[in-house]
Design brief:
alpha+beta; 4-stranded antiparallel sheet
Amino acid sequence: IYLLKLIINRMWTNMKRKIGLLGIIGLFILVVLASGCTDQKNNQTTPVNNSSTTNTSTVKEVDVSAKMTGPATATKGSTVTINCSVTNKGSKPVQNVLAHSQDFDKNLGTLNAGQTKTFTWNMYIPTDKQVQEDFGTNATVSNPFSIGGFAVTFTDNNGSKHTINSNSLEIKLS
């Protein structure tokens, strides 16, 4: 269920204009079937927090981490700013650093040893009414609102390609 919430929340802002109502309905059916909502014994969630936990890839001279932070609380119908950073904690530079998610693609170029590059992006949190227009009168926005992490790909000095993922966020809605 947690992964499915992340997918739905991240896809919301782009869904309407990209795949239309039929695509959204198809995704909703897929979510219901895949989430086990038809099996009440398999309806557990795993909590995530807004801590500064990062995922790190370490291969001797290579140590790159990605981190995402945002507000602890927000309201439905608001836009929140998400802060992202990618840090090279290793002893050698890494090249072709690309940060990407469904919502953005950022070319960060080269990260020298000890260097951090940051960027922000805005995420709209829909209202219950907006969700109900596509999913029916009983649909609501998940609380907490989940935002999945972003991926980072890069190449080390030996030409090896690496991929890491940042943490995800949950924003309590008031």
